[in-house]
Design brief:
single chain, alpha/beta, Rossmann fold, 8 helices, 16% strand, binds NADPH dihydro-nicotinamide-adenine-dinucleotide phosphate
């Protein structure tokens, strides 16, 4: 069986990625932290694609929770490995830098960037040994361009882009690819508080994106056809920034 782990699979872009990878035949490990009901809905949607999955609860900012959960999963699946990792879970805690609290900085860096280290380091070893893997990091326009009010979030996402490029070169010979997808404004819970009417006037496509439009790119990067694409950052932003 081919296993794909999607962090933050309970809602938004993560849920759309779970559905896309399920449609490609993957058995989906749906991670969530607080939204259990939403994670169960994602599992139903995964099953609706004719595939199956399971739910893994852990806080991506906690190395201990990750080690425990993945350790238990591995013990129950001897000889199997997770061949696709989508580092998607993320949070925003916006503030102008001069007013930013240490906590707002650290929470965003821990959840959005340190999670990359804990999860990827754990899983990439198996991908290298099995000589096939896909690591896909969901970054952001904010990490490519920088956005005011998001120095913490921009730093975390830009950090993940640097790590994507570095790791891609470390593992390329082992048939493991590492890429980043950088969405612009996508309609999810995360962007609910934004003024869509005002912002969409700046977007050449004239609208916010849909989670499925990000998931389609993830699906391509996860596929066998994308074997020569690595270290790339693919913008999915309606032409807002290139
Ligand atoms: P949502 O707020 O809609 O969903 C966030 C998801 O992340 C939820 O499933 C949530 O799970 C999970 N999550 C948050 N914190 C943790 C944690 N500590 N441990 C485990 N899971 C966690 O966000 P989006 O779907 O919009 O965003 C998904 C990714 O895309 C993020 O990395 C975000 O930065 C990025 N992105 C989004 C854009 C947008 O416009 N929406 C634009 C650019 C990038 P739960 O509720 O169970 O805690």
């Amino acid at each position: 069986m081919n296993f794909a782990l999607v962090t933050g699979g309970s809602r938004g872009i993560g849920r759309a990625i779970c559905i896309k990878l399920a449609a490609m035949g993957y058995h989906i490990l749906i991670n969530y932290n607080t939204s259990q009901q939403e994670a169960e809905t994602t599992l139903q949607l995964v099953r609706g694609q004719g595939s199956d999955g399971e739910i893994l609860k852990f806080d991506v900012a906690s190395q201990e929770e990750i080690e425990l959960s993945l350790g238990q999963w591995q013990a129950a699946h001897e000889g199997e490995y997770i061949s696709i990792l989508v580092n998607n879970a993320g949070i925003r805690k916006d503030a102008l830098l001069m007013w930013m609290k240490n906590e707002e900085w650290h929470d965003v860096i821990n959840t959005n960037l340190h999670s990359f280290l804990y999860l990827t380091r754990h899983l990439v070893k198996h991908m290298i040994l099995k000589k096939w893997g896909r690591i896909i990091n969901i970054v952001s326009l904010s990490g490519v361009k920088g956005l005011p009010g998001q120095a913490n979030y921009s730093a975390a996402k830009a950090g993940m882009i640097g790590a994507t490029k570095a790791l891609a070169q470390e593992v390329a010979k082992k048939y493991v690819t590492v890429n980043a997808v950088a969405p612009g404004y996508v309609r999810t819970d995360m962007t609910q508080d934004l003024d869509e009417t005002q912002l969409k006037a700046m977007i050449p496509a004239g609208r916010f994106g849909k989670p499925e439009e990000v998931a389609a790119v993830v699906g391509f990067l996860a596929s066998a056809e994308a074997s020569y694409v690595t270290g790339a950052v693919i913008n999915v932003n309606g032409g807002l920034y290139t």
